[in-house]
Amino acid sequence: MPPPADIVKVAIEWPGAFPKLMEIDQKKPLSAIIKEVCEGWSLGNHENFALQIADATNFYITEKNRNDIKNGSILRLTTSPYQTAVQLHERIQSSSMDAKLEALKDLANASRDITFAQEFINLDGISLLTQMVESGTDFGDLLSFTLTAFVELMDHGIVSWDTFSVAFIKKIASYVNKSAMDTAVLQRSLAILESMVLNSQDLYHKVAQEITIGQLIPHLQGTDQDIQTYTIAVINALFLKAPEEKRQTLLMTDCFSICLLLALSAFPKFLLFLSLVSLEIQFNEEMAHQLYVLQVLNFNLLEDRMMTKMDPQDQAQRDIIFELRRIAFDAECEPNNSGSIEKRKSMYTRDYKKLGFINHVNPAVDFTQIPPGMLALDNMLYFARHHQDAYVRIVLENSSREDKHECPFGRSSIELTKMLCEILKVGELPSENCHDFHPMFFTHDRSFEEFFCTCIQLLNKTWKEMRATSEDFNKVMQVVREQIMRALTLKPNSLDQFKSRLQNLSYTEILKIRQSERMNQEDFQSRPILELREKIQPEIMELIKQQRLNRLCEGTCFRKISSRRRQDKFWYCRLSPNHKVLHYGDLEESPQGEVPHDSLQDKLPVADIKAVITGKDCPHMKEKGALKQNKEVLELAFSVLYESDEYLNFIAPDKHEYCVWTDGLNALLGKEMTSEYTKSDMDTLLSMEMKLRLLDLENIQIPEAPPPIPKEPSNYDFVYDCN
């Protein structure tokens, strides 16, 4: 007969004694259980003791988490959180440097537990640590473990960041500003500054007074990728919290431009990895994420101009259009005061038509569409001033063509700017899990404008290759979009490399690629073929189902979303080989391979599963307001509803794993697999199977068994060594 559900069999350790095997009644108060354990070892004052999980975490057992104790768990009897906090509070003030160092090491380790953290903070422990930092008497390991303990305590969100003094901020900033600083101290200091800036607008202003982006540059030139990552995270935080007007100033300063250039030059191996995907495992995902965030914040500065309409009555804005005309037709222009007003109007209308504006009389009207608004005009002016020869050539070349074959520069520039904003997602907030950044945008302080200049020349070239007319405008834009997207997919490291990629993607090459893709995706529509497809489809669906279930049996490591990305916790889940039980459990770190079933303590019978819930309907998406707003996290979230209306909540590491797990769980429940990956796999496998069955194999007998492997030759004299 199975034991009652409330009884848990565990082992309990006590230093210097043999472990005890006990049955814990979860209905009993925790204090009663601790008292019983203490009496077994003849220990008095049971209120001064507590139970811990006997693993690397050493987390205390409380009334809130006691249900996490499973059969076979190993616990440890230890001093209570309060007693430990009192002891450490006293020990870290020791006059002996060695004793103080050991105490700070213990504090840094214990502070990861929120129960201990609460007791230590109640003793005004945070203030003590800040005073130790402000005194400036500790260095090296002493300072490193002091800052580590501080970061761990603050990560629990118990104490507000607004409570810290300017003296403390100055001291932390001084560690970052020093040219030679202990790596661990520097890393913790950068983490503290990032948290200060992100969690308090008031602290942002104080930190911004103490540290500039220019002072962060040297940390990007080192070889420690963790330091580089934390440095970029601080830059992103300063950039994100800066007032709008200061963001623009920050972007335009030489310091920020140099910072971006150095950020790129500091990672030659990292950039090589972007070209050679096989090297991906050697690099920190957090680094890629922080560079992606920096890229997004940089592009989002364009949003204001993108959403600003041109005022046709604003003379300063109209002067920009006059400047475009002057640069293009400088040799032909007459002085402004010559001729009649009507003659000048006629001349302007003619020139504006040559420039390719839709409204020849008042081209300012063309820029009232948002997006791209004034951003399009900014790009045109930049092109005219910084690439004058190319600008003049394009305008004059098209103005000399027949009307039906001219490529309208004005209209093309406006539509191209709008397209580039869509491709680069200007105005969208950074995603929590994205690592997709483009190195070439870090190689120039006006990268977007240079990107536009390259693409407008591509558009003109493609227009000529297509021999397009005004009726083909949308077709040309579609081809140009495809050319740009294919070139960006290759992750060029510089704008020059991007240009060379585009050279290999001419209109002729795009046609070849499209033709090849059409042949690979050939769709047979005849009735016999359709009947064959219908006959094969159930077999393919069963094959996909088995693949999904096999993947669930292998298992997946899932990430627990935490307030600090770099201190993520993990848990693992996998399906039993007989497809009847889900095994899951927490992990200290991301595993390198499969996790055995017996190391996963928790179980969920498949028979108890009622439904699979996805997206915003998941309970953990409703609980976490910040995650609720993150579209990408929402798309990766799913929950398993089982008996008593309880949930097992997941956030998949990527879209592929999300589809595998939702498909596999639905297959276990006998429901249809509806993910986009199922559709893609079905199309691919069905196409392959169809082509195999339609091969011309008349009068060819296909053997049922593979042919035998021939014997080894008697000698290898026929082998020729080319070396």
Automatic annotation (TrEMBL):
It is found in: Cytoplasm; Membrane. Residues 316-488 form the ELMO domain. Signal peptide: none annotated. GO terms for cellular component: cytoplasm; guanyl-nucleotide exchange factor complex; plasma membrane. It holds the Pfam family ELMO_ARM. InterPro entries: ARM-like, ARM-type_fold, ELMO_ARM, ELMO_dom, ELMO_domain-containing, PH-like_dom_sf, PH_domain. Its main location: cytoplasm. One of its GO terms (biological process) is actin filament organization. Keywords: Apoptosis, Cytoplasm, Membrane, Phagocytosis, Phosphoprotein, SH3-binding. SUPFAM superfamilies: ARM repeat, PH domain-like. GO terms for molecular function: SH3 domain binding. It comes from the Eukaryota. Transmembrane segments: none annotated. Involved in cytoskeletal rearrangements required for phagocytosis of apoptotic cells and cell motility. Acts in association with DOCK1 and CRK. Was initially proposed to be required in complex with DOCK1 to activate Rac Rho small GTPases. May enhance the guanine nucleotide exchange factor (GEF) activity of DOCK1. This is ELMO domain-containing protein. It comes from Anabas testudineus (Climbing perch). The lineage of its organism: Eukaryota, Metazoa, Chordata, Craniata, Vertebrata.
